[in-house]
Amino acid sequence: MVDEELTIKAAQCIMGGDYMGAMGIFETIIEGHGDSPLGYHGWAEAALFEIQEKGNFDEKGKERINEGQIQSYFQRATKLDPTSTEYQAAYANALIEFDRIPKAIRELKKLKELGDSSEEFDVTADLFQASKMLIDNIDFKTNFDRSEAFAKQFIPVAVEFAFLGMGFTSSEEAVEYLAEE
What we know:
The chain is mostly helical. It has helices spanning 4-15, 19-32, 37-54, 67-80, 85-97, 101-117, 124-142, 149-165, 171-179.
């Protein structure tokens, strides 16, 4: 079992904006409990917060935190706890953040399947958030030219996730609703 005191200290670091400190604590958790997803997920989340707040390149243009390690840690957390919608959504969102769109979509489909597998899992908010991130990423990548092949390929998927995120069971159901007068 993961030391609750360490987890609390890591959370306090995150709340205080000390993401590197939190990452150090999560590394300690990983060393002591390599079979627990908490350390991997926490480290990756803290690393992502650090990048979002301070950027990921130093003054020489070198990557401060390895994005591959962040992805790897998110993925490891999902493998250690394959029923966690939180871990699955965080992994997919990180993939979108790092411009790994096809892989992110595969992970979002897994998230949807997880949500479909039990009444206990409500993934609608996660899917809706991911759809917004996908659209933003596509727009940025194509300079808002939705006629580009990349946009044409992935916007329909993002729209489908948006519909699912709004509680529709499928895109077809949403379109039928829209067609009603």
